[in-house]
Amino acid sequence: MSQRALALAVLCAVSLMVVLDGSIVAVALPAIQNDLGFTPSTLAWVVNAYLIAFAGLLLLSGRLGDLIGRKRVFLAGLGVFTVASLLCGIAQDQTQLVVFRFLQGAGGALASAVVLGMITTLYPEPRARAKAIGVYSFTQAAGASIGLIAGGTLTQLLDWHWTFYINLPIGAVALVLAVRLLADDRGPGLRGGTDVTGAGLVTGGLMLLVYTIVKAEEYTWADARTLGLLAVSLLLLAGFVLRQAKARNPLLPLRIFRSRAVSGANTVMVLMVAGLFGFQFITALYLQRVLLLDALGTGFAFLPAPVSIAVMSLAFAEKLNHRFGARAVLVTGLSLVALALGFLATVEAEGNYLTDVLPALVLMGVGFGAAMPALMDRAMSGAAPADAGVASGLINTTQQIGAAVGTAVLATAAASRTGSLLAEGSALPEALAGGYRTAYALSAGLLALAVFVAAVTLREKKAQEVIVA
């Protein structure tokens, strides 16, 4: 294996570890609750603390990579993430675990924000880059499902502490290899001045936005607290945009949005992930609360999805993109995912995994495995090399915002429909299945909208569109 291939393996392994962490802990939440005495409302902060730090710092982390060097930012993030994983594993009370999860999310943001930019620099040749992005996309697309399997296995066979300890050997080995394999890169540095005001506005705005979204399920969307927090977060983000238009050294150069590829791909990412991240949450509930699978069984029930994603993204995605173009592959892949979600919108209380869930997981894996590499290719294709870090941070940020929105909206919709059916006299299994059908239908609608946006905005061009720095 060449040094370049080994470097790609290290980058993708770290990316996979960070993605896994979002779902591997979810399966362990009941055990964490029993051991540390969390209430149902405070338990959510084991997930929310990580998500808020991760989503809020991605954009800043990507720009820091452009300014001071992506390798430096990557190594710093990997080190913070690994140490924070150890601290989470040895946490003795609720406060410690939530604080260390926030620190872990910050490290994950630093490490993952620059990975895609480093890959595009590592593989400047279009076909080689497309194949490398296919490998990276597999880690992004299949990581959450693999995390459910790993979380169920570790929690059931060992205990919840190992959902954090598993990161230690991976992080340590990756850190040693990254120092040796990744090429040193130098940005212009911080001497020319950094947009401290912009950094504060966007980090505060994104963190508050994600906080508002995750709390909306508790407060409801019409509650004055939700609306007030949402208004403040949007004002902060609006202030950030105005700041970027005037700043001498902007954190997010607005010129990159002149690229239809960058703007369209980020819009598609929000819609796609909102539908699919919520799907994972809803499907885990359907498998456990309606089909009565245990944690380990639920994890393995998801296995066909990452297998299908791996086959498509690793073996066929690059060939399909070269033969038909990224836009055609993306639209087709998203259409298959929307079709799979539409199929799930027919599940019943007396459903069967083999006939009602498995076909949809396979079809979704094939569609997602084709769509994700094509989407990542389009997201990076319009950014100049000097902006690769911020473009990478931007697509990761929109991915996390989509995840937060999707989970909050679909969970609220499912709970509302289930409550209505219970009030009408339906039995609990029928009411739960009815709520999940509503969520799946919304997911399918989000994917259908993503298909439309991709078809309209991501047109192929003979000459690759790049907005020059």
Question: Can you walk me through this structure?
Answer:
By secondary structure, the chain is mainly alpha-helical. The protein has 2 domains: 3-186 and 251-457, MFS general substrate transporter like domains (Growth Hormone, Chain: A); 196-250. It is 81% helix and 0% strand. It is globular and about 65 Å long. It starts with a helix and ends in a 12-residue tail after the last helix.
Feature tags:
2 domains, disordered C terminus, mainly alpha, 469 residues, Growth Hormone, Chain: A, 18 helices, 0% strand
Largest sheet: none
How many structural domains can be distinguished in the coordinates? Answer: 2
CATH topology of the largest domain: Growth Hormone, Chain: A
Cα end-to-end separation:
35 Å
Beta fraction: under 5%
Structural class by sheet pairing and helices: mainly alpha
Rg over CA atoms, rounded to whole Å, is 21 Å
CATH class of the largest domain: Mainly Alpha
Q: What is the number of strand segments?
A: 0
Helix content: over 70%
> Spans with pLDDT under 50 lasting ≥5 residues?
462-469
Shape: globular
Give the integer mean of the pLDDT values.
82
Number of helices: 18
Please tell me the CATH architecture of the largest domain by its name: Up-down Bundle
Looking at CATH, the homologous superfamily of the largest domain is MFS general substrate transporter like domains
